[in-house]
Give the backbone structure.
Amino acid sequence: MSSSISERISKIRSSIPSSVRLIAVSKTIPAEIIRSAYAAGIRDFGESRIQEAASKQAELQDLSDITWHFIGHLQSNKAKKALEQFQWIHSVDNLQLAERLNHLALQLGVNPQICLQVKILPDPNKSGWTVPQLLADLPVINQYKNLQIQGLMTIPPLGLDEAEIFNVFNTTRNLAKTIREQDWSHIKMQHLSMGMSGDYQIAVQAGTTMVRLGTILFGDRP
Ligand SMILES: *Cc1c(COP(=O)(O)O)cnc(C)c1O
């Protein structure tokens, strides 16, 4: 890419509503490049591996107002580390994991921001709740008082056309609205984590509140 990272950030920032939170997905990106994105105004960074994130977070400790977002598949044996290193976890994809996070959050004295990952269409390559499973689990999730259940996260399956992608995002937004209107005492459901480099404009049209952008900011990953 010939443009600088700050040029790419300001171009994208100006093309999406200011209310949409731009999360820079910095997996595989070295700390010094994260530092230049920070200098260009980014405060939200997304990582998908606990170990890799830990070493970069150590190098970037002086940038104390970064919010770190975990976006990868979270194995239960890494749940404690995830809570120690990340303020947001976007990829909580089953009830057992949610229960474990709730339990560990109490022990650690943290109240993490959580998105529940949903699968709107069948996708053997992704984890996440199906819609009926999620609706059935809500009464239990509502009891996880140490988690701040902020919203839903989704990733459309590969190979969809634009209308089909819009449909996945729009269905996710409607699902969040349905859940919000059920007035759970501990489920907030104000956020949507939808949209990556290839489809974030569609996600914005469908009303997302957070986009997770890697390639379009940092270039192709190795
Ligand atoms: C890697 C990744 C992204 C960023 O993908 P790009 O296509 O590079 O923007 C977003 N979300 C998740 C869950 C990812 O794993």
